[in-house]
Amino acid sequence: MASASPVRVRFCPSPTGNPHVGLVRTALFNWAFARHHGGTFVFRIEDTDAARDSEESYEQLLDSLRWLGFTWDEGPDEVGGPHAPYRQSQRMDIYADVAKKLLDGGYAYHCYCTAEELDERRELARREGRPSGYDGTCRVVTEEQKAAYEAEGRTSIVRFRMPDEPITFQDLVRGELTFTPENVPDYGILRANGAPLYTLVNPVDDALMEITHVLRGEDLLSSTPRQIALYKALIELGVAKDIPQFGHLPYVMGEGNKKLSKRDPQASLNLYRERGFLPQGLVNYLSLLGWSFSKDQDIFTLDEMVAKFDITDVNANPARFDLKKCESINGDHIRMMEPKAFADACTPWLQAPHANWAPEDFDAAAWDRIAPYAQTRVTVLSDITANVDFLFLKEPVEDQASWDKAMKGEPAALLTTAREKLDAADWNDPESLKQAVLDAGEAHGLKLGKAQAPVRVAVTGRTVGLPLFESLEILGKERSLARIDATLAKLAG
Questions:
Q1: What is the pLDDT of residues 324-336, one digit of tens each?
Q2: In angstroms, rounded to a whole number, what is the distance separating the alpha carbons of residues 465 and 378?
Q3: pLDDT score at 262
Q4: 399 φ/ψ sector (left φ>0, alpha ψ -120 to 50, else beta)
Q5: What's the pTM value of the predicted model, to 2 decimals?
Q6: Strands annotated E in 218-370
């Protein structure tokens, strides 16, 4: 297996669609492993599928890694490195040269079997209870047979010749694994048109870029014995130096304990960015999908994770994605922010198109005053608009559910008394405002919780929000009492 050379890992996504949180988890574990060991994080783009790959997705991948804080040591864009280019679409000559060496060395061969013939033989193998992989029909083809096939107009793919012996390796997550020959048949490495397949380009790039550890999803485990056999051939041909160590990360499960797929709404990284997750909060949660910091600590920084992370501590069991826990951890990271950093981070959500108030109605001074209270309440940054809109809207939002919940019993009588008490209170002191509402409640046989609900809905439009009396102070006496008056008029009407 790999020698004691410095750690070199790679993250090699295909630029198809929006980045997936499972993909981000793979990038995170590779990045943290490299940083923990003082190694190299290689970012490589697998873009040989012209029908599915897009430049837009490529740009999204670059942007996403930067947003998450995963700087790469070698890779595309302006980073570069000694093994450039780092986009597979620009390395076709390399793959063609390696494929020729494999053919010339007898490690690979041309396969002329048609799709129909393959289907028939697979179906027969299934009926007879035999493995249904490729049966090696074209392993030995004479020149006469080759000429006859080509005269028929047949084309050929190139297959790699698997060894007729078990392949055993030590998985860094799962321990020792063995695959027997009947379960790992010869496989294609070049299409009939000469285009290289993933089965060739991925291990060839790993070999040429001297990757020491391949940390990837469990779904790729079945391809590992094929790649190990190819590595051995590449070493004998002088293309590769070592076989990397492999570690296969557990599945990330979604609803119903099914593997989280790209089609699941909660899988899209863009969704979390749009909702206002902090990169450090999201990364903290994703690191817990198969790994743990300690038995009694779930909240930590990226630097703290790097200091403790090792791939051998990853659990092989599937990890379930829990959105509520993800939100909770993000909320903890919001509360860990410096107040000014939090206020600045909320800025995009206090402006159009997120905000439902006119730009000229935004009061920066009022925001600065209320931001510390908001920081203790929100779990994602997009929560901020619903928490502070009462400050910037000319009238509070009309939330019928909140109105129905708060305006029970005799709300008009309570609000009338509360207005009188508030009018006489000290509006520079939230405790004085609290005492006014408390006194009003006592006058009507109500505790503070029941007494403040109609006041809160009258002033903010909602039953739940930031601390009420601090909110009243910041909104100011004139606007607060005017809103109570408007509510009393509505109740009377």
A1: 999 999 999 999 9
A2: 10
A3: 74
A4: beta
A5: 0.91
A6: 245-249, 252-253, 319-320
Contact 16, 47 (CB under 8 A): no
pLDDT on residue 334: 98
What's the confidence (pLDDT) of residue 3? 42
Token pair of 407, please?
């305006």
d(CA 252, CA 259): 6
**8 A C-beta contact, residue 13 and residue 219:** no
Backbone φ/ψ region at 142: left (φ over 0), alpha (ψ -120 to 50), beta: beta
* 425 three-state secondary structure: coil
Q: Collapse the DSSP code of 157 into the 3-class scheme (helix H, G, I; strand E, B; otherwise coil) and give the result.
A: strand
309: left (phi over 0), alpha (psi -120 to 50) or beta: beta
Alpha-carbon distance 234 to 80, whole Å? 25
Q: Which residues are catalytic?
A: 262
Local structure of residue 178 (DSSP, 8 states): E
Which residues are CB-contacts of 261 (< 8 A; sequence separation ≥ 6)? 254, 267
- Whether 264 and 251 have beta carbons less than 8 Å apart is answered as no
Is the pLDDT at 9 greater than 70, yes or no? yes
Phi, psi of 247 (to 5 degrees): -140, 120
Look at the block and give the residue holding tokens 């040591």: 73
Strands 8-11 and 40-43: parallel
Measured CA to CA, the distance from residue 298 to residue 329 in angstroms comes to 8
Helix runs in 192-299, H state only: 198-208, 224-236, 269-275, 279-287
